[in-house]
Amino acid sequence: MENTIKISCSAVTHIGSDRVVNENRIYANGKFLQPHLIDNSQISLEASGNLFIFALSDGMDMDAESRISIVDELKKFHRKAVGSTKDIQIKLDEMADYVQQSNNLLYSMSLGEETDNSRNTAFAGLLVDNGNLAAVNLGNCRIYKVEADIIKPLINDSRRTDRLLKMGIINNEQAEMLTGQQKNSNMDGSMQVKKSGVLPVKEGNEYLLCSNSLIEALSEETVFEILVETRELDAAAGHLVREALENGCEDNVTAMVIRIEQVGEEAVPVSSVRNATVRRIQATPARYSRMVRKKSIDTARLVTTFIVVAVIAAVLFGGFTLWMNWRNPNKDKDALSQNTTQPSESDKSTADDTIPDESDEVTETESSTSVDATTPDDSEVGDNTTYTVKSGDNLMKISKQFYGEEGKYRLIMEANDITNPDKIQVGQVLKIPPAN
Q1: Residue 149, Cβ neighbours under 10 Å: how many?
Q2: SS3 of 413, please?
């Protein structure tokens, strides 16, 4: 079953300041760009289908008389692959054979020419077929995969020697030896085409095919920042090339950015070339500032962290309170006994301030409540003396009224079966027992 894929691509190439001819060649799914003597060229592509071929080569096209051109070989392979039902791995092997044979032929042709004996060929190709992709690499052209927050070489790590040296795995002498071996293989025609494994196509992933000069002028971190921050492919490819030139790149420099827009959705095949016109770049004195990648704030993680901290704080506070209660088990009892003992003379003057408001103690059902009789004193207290509670009353106040002291309120509690001295209501009739 064929999987329809939508892909966007943009490529920019610029001749080096110490070069007379731009030998970089761009192949974008059937559309190709051969800048030759032009300073700056750009090609863009948007297409839907199930098979795509993108490639960048350097030094793999000779003059018209020799009739050796990697672009022509790619067109042949492309026509053959479109009508083939073979697995992508078989197509990848065939693509690698086309590149290897072209490189071998170019090397043989250059043996008799002293000026071309130092020709360095390079190739980077990406094959997308029916929901999978794979890459082919020869020489110093680079292929990078950009997924989420990671950029990594898709085939070989061209800076592996530098990384081994920094990690202390090899010394300076061994590093020079490995670098020399690589240069010699580039010049003596012994280079072998390398192939990546087959990977599934993922929506949103980007791939960068670029010349070696671009990575020598820019760090991989800078390349990643530009690709992440510049979502428009034309602008991203142009920015990479301009940044390399601003950093003093003297060799031919090329950047091809490919993005997987949609995967598995049927779409009307559309293949068009936009902005394929050749134009000369204008030098500007302004330096391009380094782009700093903005890190988005994960709101959900921030909220979760806040909740966890709040819960931990609550648990610690609760544990501390329990520990304090365990250390002082009689603290509350002592406080209660102090509140229920007879107050001192200094406390009597502020008794009203320590008693809760009537809204907390007494449920007032009327705006005013009358007393059954005139206010009695201690001499009038008999066996049948009663008192009707009015707004603002409490047992200590009533005790003071009938017995002359607040401490005898317990007599009223016992006579009326009151368990909580604070729970009396307006209009409640209380029995007032004799003081003795």
Answers
A1: 9
A2: helix
Residue 262, C-beta contacts closer than 8 angstroms, at least 6 positions apart: 4, 5, 6, 48, 203
Q: Which tokens sit at 346? A: 């200094």
Nearest-angstrom CA–CA distance, 170 and 261: 42
Q: Can you tell me the distance from the alpha carbon of 431 to that of 242, in angstroms, rounded to the nearest whole number?
A: 101
Residues 239, 223: Cα–Cα separation, whole Å: 10
CATH class, range 355-431 = alpha beta
Q: Residue 198's CB: how many other CB atoms inside 10 A? A: 15
- Write the DSSP assignment of 334-364 as a string of letters: HHHHHHHSPPPHHHHTTHHHHSPPHHHH---
Q: Hey, what amino acid is at 273? A: V
What are 135-186's pLDDT values in tens digits? 999 988 999 999 988 898 888 655 566 656 666 777 777 767 766 665 555 5
Instruction: Say whether pLDDT at 55 is over 80.
Output: yes
For domain 5-279, say whether CATH 3.40.50.300 is its number: no
Residue 103's contacts (CB-CB under 8 Å, 6 or more residues apart) are 60, 121, 123, 138, 189, 191, 193
Mean pLDDT (the chain) is 77
Closest CA to 109 of 37, 185, 189, 35: 189
Distance between CA atoms of 143 and 126, rounded to whole angstroms?
Answer: 8
Would you say 116 and 198 are in contact if contact means Cβ atoms under 8 Å apart? no
Token readout for 405 is 């002291």
Q: State the DSSP string of 64-100.
A: TTTT-BHHHHHHHHHHHHHT----HHHHHHHHHHHHH
Rounded Cα distance, 306 and 329, in Å: 34
3-state secondary structure at position 272: strand
pLDDT(194) > 50? yes
CATH 3.10.350.10 segments of the chain: 355-431
Determine the 3-state secondary structure of 144 from DSSP. strand
122, 155 in Cβ contact below 8 A? Answer: no
**Geometric angle at alpha carbon 215, from 226 and 12, rounded to 5°:** 65
Q: Which one-letter DSSP state was computed for residue 22?
A: B
Local structure of 223: helix, strand or coil: helix
- In the chain, CATH 3.60.40.10 sits at 5-279
pLDDT digits (tens, 9 = 90+) for 370-380: 334 344 454 46
Compare 20 and 345 and report the one with higher pLDDT. Answer: 20
